[in-house]
Design goal:
By secondary structure, the protein is mainly β. The protein has three domains: about 60 residues, Dna Ligase, domain 1 (2-Layer Sandwich); about 90 residues, D-amino Acid Aminotransferase, Chain A, domain 1 (2-Layer Sandwich); about 130 residues, Nucleic acid-binding proteins (OB fold (Dihydrolipoamide Acetyltransferase, E2P)). Helices cover about 15% and strands about 35% of the residues. The strands form four sheets. Strands 1, 4, 5, 6, 7, 8 and 9 form a seven-stranded mixed β-sheet that branches. The longest helix is centred in the last third of the chain and has 12 residues. The protein is globular and about 60 Å long.
Length: about 300
């Protein structure tokens, strides 16, 4: 049952889905399309709207904020995704708070009913259920990133949970740029990004240091040469030139490129899609999706 409280909280930890290799889960699950973008939490207090990433970093999206502000409710916390393409809107899939009540303990179906009662205007979009005998196959056929399976009757949990499962058509991973190669032929800006992730190290034996990521190894994960347009190539080169250093920042690597390679301080986070991890822990057929501004580099880990 929804619980009444006097004041909407400043922050509620968003629920996160668990990655699974399963393609069919049987009865007891509802499926939604997984959008290719970044998580967005909308906090509406009267006419004031604050937008945050899943890591509580403020997001500046005036058209989304304006649409949320128009909702005929006193206050609300909405959970959704903003697509990378920047044109297909704010895809809202859950509600955590509505009109003075925390509603996270309500069953999934009841929270979806609350969302359905809200009159969304563009660019807000309601995430509809995937009504298909094989949702993962539908995702593969239609070129989606994947689907999210949500257990019927489940509450909204403020943690990574197995009540929500990610069934991906292709893998996606946040990675940190540690270098780049020069362009060849008619290409401009750069040839490929050299990327990696942080791997918790136990060498220091200091839990405090490990919690800050100070002792983590920076592991080379491969190079990304596709997914760029000319503007992005030039913009990235300008940013990377300002971060250039003399030596590779990677502390663990195999077959690190040396020819025409430049090294940078690991400050830029990118989102990458790929087929799988190779036996040498490298990305197979990676493709750049976009640059992340909502993630601190030291928080980037390999998804398991």
């Amino acid at each position: 049952m929804a619980t009444s409280v006097e004041k909407m909280p400043e922050w509620l930890e968003p629920m996160a889905a668990t990655l699974t290799a399963e393609r069919s889960l049987g009865p007891g699950w509802l499926y939604e399309r997984k959008f290719d973008g970044i998580r967005l939490l909308a906090y509406k207090r009267g006419s004031t709207v604050d937008l945050f990433s899943r890591n509580r970093l403020p997001q500046h999206l005036p058209s989304v904020a304006a649409a949320v502000a128009e909702l005929p409710v006193k206050d609300a916390i909405l959970d959704g995704e903003v697509a990378w393409d920047g044109t297909s809107g704010y895809h809202v899939f859950d509600v955590l708070w509505l009109n003075g009540k925390k509603v996270t303990d309500l069953p999934l179906e009841d929270r979806r009913a609350l969302l359905k009662s809200l009159p969304f205007t563009a660019p807000m979009r309601r995430v509809e259920l995937v009504r298909d005998d094989n949702p993962w196959e539908r995702a593969r056929r239609d070129g989606w990133e994947g689907v999210i399976a949500k257990r019927t009757g489940s509450p909204y949990e403020h943690r990574r949970s197995k009540q929500w499962l990610k069934l991906k058509v292709e893998c996606s991973q946040e990675l940190v740029v540690g270098g780049f190669t020069d362009p060849q032929g008619s290409r401009v800006g750069l040839g490929a990004l050299l990327v990696g992730y942080y791997d918790p190290s136990t060498s220091s034996g200091s839990p405090r240091a490990a919690s800050r990521g100070e002792e983590d190894d920076f592991v080379f994960a491969g190079k990304i040469g596709t997914g760029f347009d000319t503007k992005l190539l030039l913009d990235l080169r300008k940013r990377l030139d300002s971060l250039e250093i003399a030596k590779p920042p990677f502390t663990k690597f195999h077959a690190l490129p040396k020819l025409r390679a430049h090294w940078v301080r690991p400050k830029i986070v990118v989102q990458v899609s790929f087929i799988e991890w190779t036996g040498n822990n490298k990305l197979r057929h990676p493709r750049l999706i976009g640059v992340r501004f909502d993630k601190h580099p030291r928080e980037v880990r390999r998804e398991r």
